[in-house]
Every structure is written in C-alpha cells, then in structure tokens.
Amino acid sequence: MHSASQIATFKTWAFLSLALLTPAVQAEMRTFTSPDGRTLQAEVQSATSDMVTLKLTNGAPLAVQISKFSEADQAFIAEWRKANPMAIKYNFAATFTKDKRDSSKSSKNNEEITTDTWACNVKLVNRSNLTLDGIKMDYEIYYTQVSGKQAVTRKMTGRADVPSVKHLEEVLVQLRELKLTTTKLEGGFYYLDGSRSRQKDAIEGVVIKLKHDGKQVYEWASAGVPKDRVSTAEGKDSSPAK
Question: Which first-to-last residue range defines the signal peptide (predicted)?
Fold first, then answer.
C-alpha cells in the first residue's frame, strides 16, 4: 500500500512530466517563411493585428509586419494571438466636431423656416501603444429644440464602427446626421405668447462609449452635455422628435 504522501508525490511528478512533454504555445520555435522563400527560426513573443515580435534563436527580438510572412505563417500568428491575448492599457483622446452639410428655407404661417443638416463627427486618437481593430462606438448626440417659450433638450443615439487605428493615429468617426431648424417671424408679426421672433435649435454635445472584444473600455463626454442625462427626451430617426 502506498501512503497518502507517496501518492501526492507521484501525482506531482506526473503533472510536471506532462507539462515538460507538452510544448507551450508561446515557446514554440517555428520556421517562418517570407513570400519570396526566405526563412528564419524564431518564436512569437507578442502580436497585434498587423505586427509580430519574434525571438530569434540567438535571443534577439525582431519586430516584423505580419504581411511580410506567408499565408500559413499569418494564420499561425492569428491563432497564437487568439490563444495569447495581450493585456491592453486602453488610452484614447477624443474631440467632437460638427459640419453643416446642407441648408434649405421655406415659409409657413408668416414664418421663415431654415432647416440645416449637420454632420456630427468624433475625432479619436489611439494612445494605447498598439494597433486596435474591431472597436464599436455607442454615442448620444444632445441637442436643444425650441418650441414657443419652451426649450427641450433631446438626445439621438446610434452606433458606429471605428476603423482599424494604429498607435497615435487619428481617425474620424462619422455619426448620424441631425436636422435642426431656425424659425424667424416676418416683419410686423409677433407671437401671442410673447416668444422671441427668432428661435433656433442647437447641438449641445456628445457622449461616446467604446467597446472592444465585447467590453466597454472608454467613455467620454464633450462640453455642453447636460449633467442630468437621464431626464433627457429621446429624439427619433435622423431629425428631432416633435
């Protein structure tokens, strides 16, 4: 009969033997081949969507674009990357911009109505020290809609795909268009409720939330976003709600 300590020792040695016989993915030495047939022996140390860092047989590191290798090597690197996800320190800088795309005028009930179509954008700089792809952006655009004496803050929500962005690269993410109106009474007329003769809707700001690999990694609010966002009315479609 074996004692409990002898059995435990045997299990420990069996586990260590199995670990030594099973090559770790990150320690696999491989022959990498370029499209023109050149080869080198190395093991993968780290990889992003477009770059791989190899450890050569002499221990020296080598950073290479993944596209420099054969299709089989590229597939191997992609599988290695899935099995060895990097710990990413997400870091971004964001700014909100708006651009008037179109403007039209009409008249109704002694009012001159100007409708402006605005394109809202977010400029995003990746400061995470590696190339990122597959980022999703959820956003909320806040705007004020005036009706008579009452100004109501509304929001329009949406989602956008962020293009693959390299470290320190800036990308422009286009959000949904927003139609805002300016209403002006013709000369000699006035509103019975005492409202101003000129009323103008306005874009206030935007909130963005970035998701990567299914988890939220960044949130940012521009100037002008109301503090009590929960009580904000919802806008509908690509124009303000009525």
Answer: 1-27
Provide CATH 2.60.40.10 ranges for the chain: 92-221
Helix/strand/coil for 84: coil
For the chain, give every residue range classified as CATH 2.30.30.700: 29-83
Residue 131, classed as helix, strand or coil, is coil
Lowest pLDDT segment from 9-13, 82-86, 169-173: 9-13
3-state SS class at 157: strand
What is the C-alpha separation between 161 and 135, in angstroms, rounded? 6
Q: Is residue 190 within 8 Å of residue 145, measured between CB atoms? A: no
**Terminus-to-terminus CA distance in the chain, angstroms?**
85
Q: Count of residues for the chain?
A: 242
State which fold the 92-221 domain adopts: Immunoglobulin-like (2.60.40)
Asked whether the beta carbons of 220 and 124 are under 8 A apart, the reply is: no
φ/ψ (deg, to 5) at 71: -60, -40
Over residues 31-43, the pLDDT tens digits come to 999 988 999 999 9
**Chain centroid offset of residue 109 CA:** 45
